[in-house]
């Protein structure tokens, strides 16, 4: 059974949230982003980002998301995996700008540990 993965794909102030199966390829993600941003697929590169938002490695179009290291534990709905994208014809580096800081999660929405007997 394939796992559903969740991604936040970012460039400048654009943040696109996507979900995909672990068997889909990087090219499939690029097609999704292109459908939303209307950027050319062939002009786009997707990059894996670290915790600080720095790009670490380019993702190859034919690789599956599982082969890129994404699993249901590091690409969850409540904590999507971060990807950066750049337009090859326009930019030399992946550039991402913060849009805002989200408000804190209300106490009623936080998960609490199950009581132990």
What is the end-to-end distance? 33 Å
Structural class: mainly beta
| Major beta-sheet overview | 5 strands, mixed
At the first level of CATH, what is the class?
Answer: Alpha Beta
Number of domains: 1
Total strands: the figure is: 5
Low-confidence stretches: none
Strand content: 25-35%
- The number of helical elements comes to 1
In one word, what is the shape? globular
What's the short version?
This protein has 117 residues and is mostly beta strands. It contains one helix and five strands; from the N terminus they run ββαβββ.
Summarize the structure in words.
The protein has 117 residues and is mainly β. The chain has one domain (4-87): Ubiquitin-like (UB roll) (Roll). It is built from one helix and five strands. The chain has a five-stranded mixed β-sheet with strand order 2-1-5-3-4, with helices on one face. A hairpin with a 2-residue loop joins strand 1 (4-11) and strand 2. The longest helix is centred in the first third of the chain and has 12 residues, at 26-37. The chain is globular. One of its GO terms (cellular component) is elongin complex. InterPro entries: ELOB, Ubiquitin-like_domsf. This is Ubiquitin-like domain-containing protein.
